[in-house]
Amino acid sequence: MRRSLVVGNWKMNGTRESAAALVQGILAGLDGDIADIAVCVPYVYLESVGNIINSTRLGLGAQNIADKASGAYTGEVSASMLAEVGCKYALVGHSERRTYYGDSDASVAARFVQAQTQNIIPILCVGETLEQREQDQTIAVVNEQLDAVIELAGIAAFNNAVIAYEPVWAIGTGRTATDDQAQEVHKHIRSYIAAKDQAIAEKIQILYGGSAKPDNAQGLFAMADIDGGLIGGASLDAESFLKIYHSVSK
Ligand code: PGA
Fold first, then answer.
1. Is 94 a catalytic residue?
2. How many domains does the structure of the chain reveal?
């Protein structure tokens, strides 16, 4: 049985003080070891938040990671730096990175590989735009995004990785994929991986992201191939993030 995982993505929000208060609120309500849980924090707060959640069940994650190991890459933060402050996870290929900052499939694949060099678990985000969905390209787009990483990292690398399906049209829009729409793509992703490695497909956690909220999380998480969520807006409030966490049923 796969263990579920609920990850908060704070994006570019908060202050040092509000970040501390938010994780303290989450820790205070974190009863029952029902699933894995983590927060992806802005770079500059990783260390202060890490000091608070150190040796708790709440994992630390970064929202991005450099595609190179070190050197003259102004503005980037390397995997070894993130490992040093205690990151367990790093998002790679979030659609906001792909859309606004030009993170290409190739650079996303390189970021994925860099994370694993430091035992950081990459959370690979994939998903189609509204236009691509309307043109029936969802599966092709997701395959292409997966292929770029599989080609560079090899399928075995997915032993230590998480996939997040995030339809771009559902992120921050209040328009969630229906349980069935999400399940359909999750099932496809799992079978696509299974065609290359059955054992990895059975154990890999595939998260749903895109306007997941306390009132729709339970239905989504009940679907056979949805192993938790990547939560943006609703993770900025301890109570709603915990409600989502407690919606995990498996
Ligand atoms: P949202 O964001 O929950 O605010 O839609 C999800 C994400 O971008 O990871």
1. yes
2. 1
